[in-house]
Write a structure and sequence with these properties.
Strand content: 5-15%
Radius of gyration: 18 Å
Low-confidence stretches: 1-14, 263-281
CATH topology of the largest domain: Zincin-like
Largest sheet: 5 strands, mixed
Structural class: alpha/beta
Shape: globular
Helix content: 40-55%
Distance between the termini: 22 Å
Mean pLDDT: 88
Number of strands: 5
CATH architecture of the largest domain: 2-Layer Sandwich
Length: 281
Amino acid sequence: MRLAALGLLLLGGAGCITPLASLTRVTSVTAGAQRFELKSEPAATEDELRLRRSIERAAPKLDRWGGLAAPVTVRIAPTHADLERAVGRHGYDWLRAWAQYDDLIIQSPGSWAGTDRDVDELVVHELTHCLMFQRSGTKQTWASKGIPLWFREGMAAVTAEQGLRFPSLEDLADWLLRNSELDVFAEAEALSQTAYGQIYGLAFHAVRFLLRRYGDGAVTKTMEAMGRGSGFDRAFETSVGLAPRRFEADFLNYVRLRGFRGFGLELKPRLDRRGPDQRPR
């Protein structure tokens, strides 16, 4: 599975998802306190069942961040061409899903997924995007918060436990050395088109580093601050205690100096820590 297929392509895709007229089968799904409406073609019973089960398995992982604040409509696009038309993006052969505030469109799993784990990871990843957008703003304001790629993709990839799909910290250290002229965070959106593995890998490891150093509160409190009206930069600095660019620089030093090898880099949590072990590796 192509790595970039696992996440939101660009926040520039904040417009409405185009309805697919053939999706007349509607199934309500409740998982804990979270609610979903699953839309598919009448004959797509296998896809509908597969996604319903993936949604049910995804819900407990979303609870880590407080769960979805609003119901989500999940649409099953019968083909890749249908997906591209619905989201208004063309030529992205690896694209498998598109997430927004309360809408998620997924290409029919039967047309691409090798295993249920592939589907589960994609569903958790994309629903984590929905959760972040809902907890960071309203349906009208979420896209204007300025959430950087590393934070939104890293949070989604960590929640979906997708570490094996990304380069190791050792490999990323070598890549950064060979590409020292790049501003990998400021230019992440553009770089993700040609170096998506490295950019998404940095996002994954950056959020693991964030959680190990500051705890889950670094994410939840940043979302809460955005929900109260702040943009990402101010919300992050208020919640974590340093500006995003300072955090990014700290993380890049950690990777470039190979602090993950255990050369004495101290990672002391400063906020309340919840959830399983998230030690950077």
